[in-house]
Amino acid sequence: MSRANLSSQSCSIARAVALVGDQWTIMIMREMFLATRRFDDFLNLTGMSSHLLSQRLKKLETLGVIRRQAYSQRPPRYEYRLTQMGRDLWPVIIAFKQWGDRWLTDDEPSVQLIHKGCDAASTPRLMCSQCGEPMEAHDAVAQLAPAFEQERSKLRKQS
Amino acid sequence: MSRANLSSQSCSIARAVALVGDQWTIMIMREMFLATRRFDDFLNLTGMSSHLLSQRLKKLETLGVIRRQAYSQRPPRYEYRLTQMGRDLWPVIIAFKQWGDRWLTDDEPSVQLIHKGCDAASTPRLMCSQCGEPMEAHDAVAQLAPAFEQERSKLRKQS
DNA sequence: AAAAGTAACTTCAAAAATAGAAGTTAGTCA
DNA sequence: TGACTAACTTCTATTTTTGAAGTTACTTTT
């Protein structure tokens, strides 16, 4: 299966990952949430090549995750901003951050999140949308839609 | 900057992404959370090449995200299971799922999460660890540690 | 008026990663 | 004995990424 074909799966995880689940895209999104807006800042702050940055920004714009906006006509200059679709990727970035903070360092986190609501340093957690209780892997059971089950049993038999 | 060097950044997002932020690793983790345990099932259900699957499983084992365990001595057969480090990646997978469900499909989600605590279909949300209120991108302010600020202003000047 | 600088890119060759097909190992089953 | 199975490994072709250099359309400095 080629990379592109991942997005043809019916699973929304596969689709999401096919579009925005690569390392440099996630680094771009980190920068977006740190208020970076300009090409050369993305370039220097992520350390990626300009070629790839250009490609990724175009892809994200096409997808509707970010939009490109002129902030000067002469000389022509552009900046990149999140759309709602882009802002909704925040939980993905935060999830990576929490995991990294927990498992990959003993130091203080390099970024702390201050919750505007209560003014405290927050380490956001997942909670159940229905009852509001905190939720972890073992608190949930995955229930597969019939179509997805079928897709999977076909795939299993292919070997 | 080569890919590997991402993990030398002090930012835990960069580190996390360098280790587990690629498409196939995330697909492997999806399968882990769907209770897949065996090589050929990962192979067929993700659609990745066996070469890459083998590499990724080794990397994840070395990192401590999964462990490899014999379930038969003769013939020698192995299965893969999550460690606590691996289970803690659940929020990453769920975050991708929620985003995909919201932005990439109009159909019913292919997977529904049933919360064991309340027995309802749940779409987990982030909440503040301090006050328990739901949290989104605009509810937080990022506060950078001095060392990270310094790292970043050096990087900015490199252009 | 010419030269240097700047932001936002594009181009290109070399290196690295991935895909897909085929092969291997250590067995069991008919 | 021959087919089958799970869990891989090996190989070459293709695709992606890197890193350096170049381009465009201006503004600022000398």
User: How widely separated are the two ends of chain A?
Assistant: 14 Å
Largest interface: A-B, 97 and 98 residues
Average pLDDT of chain A, to the nearest integer?
95
Strand tally of chain A is 6
Global morphology of chain A: globular
Strand content of chain A: 15-25%
Oligomer: homodimer
- The ordered H/E elements of chain A are HHHHEEHHEEEEH
Q: How are the strands of the largest sheet of chain A arranged? A: 1-2
Describe the sheet with the most strands of chain A: 2 strands, antiparallel
Structural class of the helices, strands and pairings of chain A?
alpha+beta
- Estimate the helix proportion of chain A, in percent: 40-55%
Would you identify the regions of chain A where 5 or more consecutive residues have pLDDT less than 50? none
Query: What is Rg of chain A?
Result: 19 Å
Tally the helices of chain A: what do you get? 7
What are the salient characteristics of this protein?
alpha+beta; 159 residues; DNA-binding; homodimer; 6 strands
